[in-house]
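Lecture 7, part B: from sequences to assemblies.

Below are the input chains for today's worked example.
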Amino acid sequence: MIPLSSSFGRRLVWGALPLLLAALVLVGCDDENLLSERPDAGPIFDRYVAIGNSITAGFQANGISKTTQQQSFANLLAGQMGTEFNLPALNNPGCPPPLTQIFPAPQRPDGPPCSLREAPAPTTLNNVAVPGAEVIDVLSNTDQASNANTLTSFILGGRTQIEAAREAQPTFVTAWIGNNDVLSAALVGNTDLITPVEDFTSRYNTMLSQLESMQDLEGAALFGVVDVTLTPNLSPGAAYAQVVPQGQQAQVLPPNLQVADSCAPSNLGGVGDQMLVPFQYGVALVSVAGALFQQFGANAPAVTLNCAQDLTVEEAVGQSFGGVGNIPPPIQDAIRDVRNVSVLQTQEIATLRGTVQAYNDFIQQAAGERDYAYVDVNALFQQPERRQQIPVFPELFDVPGNDFTPERPFGPLFSLDGVHPSAEAHEVVTNAAIEAINSQYGTTIPALNQ
Amino acid sequence: MGRAGAGVAETCDDGSAMYFNPAGLVGETGWTVSGGVTAIFVGGEFTADRTRESWDIQNDPIPVPHLYARYGLNERWAAGIGVFVPYGLSTEWPTGDFDGRFLGYNNSLQSIYIQPTVAYQLTDRIKIGGGLDVVIGAVELNQHQDLSQQTVPSDQLPPGTTFGELGIPFHTAFADVKLDAGGATGIGGNFGVQVRATDWLRFGARYTLPVELNYEGDATFTQLQTGLVLPPNNPIQPNTALPVDALVAPQFEQGGLLVDQDVETEITMPGQLLIGISVQTTPRLKLLADYQWTDWSTFDVLPIDFENDALDTEQIENYEDTHALRLGAEYAATEAWTARAGLITHGAAAPDETVTPLLPEGYRNEFTAGFGWQPSPLFEVDVAYQYIAQNDRRGRVRDPRVGESDPTAEELNSGLYSFGAHLIGTTLTLHF
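Predicted structure of the full complex, as structure tokens:
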């Protein structure tokens, strides 16, 4: 043994000390654990992208803002998946700001008609849905049939939805698209605006092919198209027959607004329970009647809702003046944007429902063929407990004995435009989507506590 | 290099003492001339959190030369001149879809030190030496520009509105920028002392002054096509579709912001302080240890000053001083053959928020080995190998975005950098 007090021992100590010190600080090098964690619900949800229209985008009350975008089912679903989800956040109060009131006159918060996208821009975009989009809009912004609008630029910045989705390299996609292929027809009472089923399926197939070509895609959920005739924006003429006298009694509706006998339910000899009146149609008649009553008082001409005839707003108002050509210019100006809106007659309602059924048969089959989840939204909202939450006529004023309130005239499930789901309805949709996805993929996304 | 660069207490006799410790230049009388090259093979990758996709560094081998000439006037005086490269970097990344290209995809920094040196044997036990460093520097940076962070040239929108606020996606490449600045010169110094405590124990220290380099060069801008078209009903041109590339094209034309122009920047090569010991444990075995402090905290910002002031940027670097321990061993196997080995443990200069593709730097261990062959007193050949094993480190591939104030490293960093290098060096030394 070498004594440390010896010359060589001292040399050894001086030389070995730094080596011991180095041994203490030398550590391992490679550590992939430093990468971020995968989503709680499984790697299939690593990168979730939502394709769709106004509902997926988070449009409510005829407007959209960061607040409503965060209430979208897509955002809630991503939260339950535990995956990153970036929105094309629009600065509050919105673009346009959501309505704060619809009756007696629509009101929005103070601010510009469209606030810009929020800065900073997200590094990736997960919600690529655009309000107003039909299936064609997922594929093209410039096709003659496309419906690109200001929000298309603000959300996609010159890309299509499918291009933006591809850039996000999704592992999972939800697609709730097709509602607008029938919605405009319903809201303006013109079934000519329906996208023919063959065009719809062709475009939808193209979209699915594009999705399937995305290398990392592991799964998807396809949502059925909403039966737009069930939205509370459309009310049966019979409901007008019941509510208008109550409103006149409460002095919130002008006395010269009349509901024709044809609007009685069929058991009373009318057709009022077999046709639908778009909300903007009814509002136009109320506005015109109110303006005339304000001008002429008790001598104001009557403005009549006729349920037996497929009249446009202009034609219905024209009847008060002996013909469309006699409508005074101020009244013409007041109805300019809605003059071609008409009621939905029985056959038109059947056409809309038949089309939605055909769309959904196709979507459900397409989902099945690809082992994608299918979310049946109509079944969800046709459950009796939810049907009871959807008023047949908006609660524009306090009607005694009615469960609804003027603050939420279309009930708790619909926002102030009577078309788009409320935040509460988005939660319902989220859980329905979770149930369908878990069932299809054997995953364990936790349900949202409502 | 074979003994991990340790040797501030006892330098090699090939003239490299001019860099490692100028005091070590005193010794033999007559001429010593050495020259060689070190080839650096850099490897590394960035792995993104979001996709687990990886992009590899694409550097070609980098040759780094060195040249020393010394003359021992007598036993007390020696002088010489050395040319060496103590600082330098080069990183080349793919340009396709690697997000880091917006920070820099082909970057290099060169600093050539030319150092006339003189050394003096002060007492039997103490040597001192010093040299004046004339430093020549060049820097090149190539990067893409992100359209989403640029202001929209339109009076239809509130002033200062960015393309990102119109929906243009983050990291939309619309311009390629090359900053090429060379010819920077600076003056520094390198000073050292060596003490022979006993026949077998020596101490040494060296201080290298920081050198400020001011670079002047050219910035070249090339438009890249985004292919983006804002559809009709867009907020700038509501009635028709608007090709984004046409909207920004005037920026690249005469009178525009992104035209070729002069550019300047400034980087300070940091100072260094080393102290070390050398122990001759047996007649054949020598052990060496150095501690090195490097003043990286002087690198706090990287200003880029364009001819058009609107383009000026100042990248926050906030580097931190580093500490390193170098341990080396040298074994004289025969009169002609010498074996060397060593290891280095080195701290990180870049803080967590500044680990970027320009230099994905971090804590590292380095292992060296080599040999020397001196078949005659007139010449010798040294060959060495060094492996740099850097710990994986989280880093970023983007700068803070417009509207993002003081993001944390956790918010900025989006993946993992792996980095390492193999170095092979050889030196031929002549004594006459």
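Note for the exam: The CA atoms of residues 66 and 182 of chain A lie 27 Å apart. Keep this in mind when comparing with the next example.
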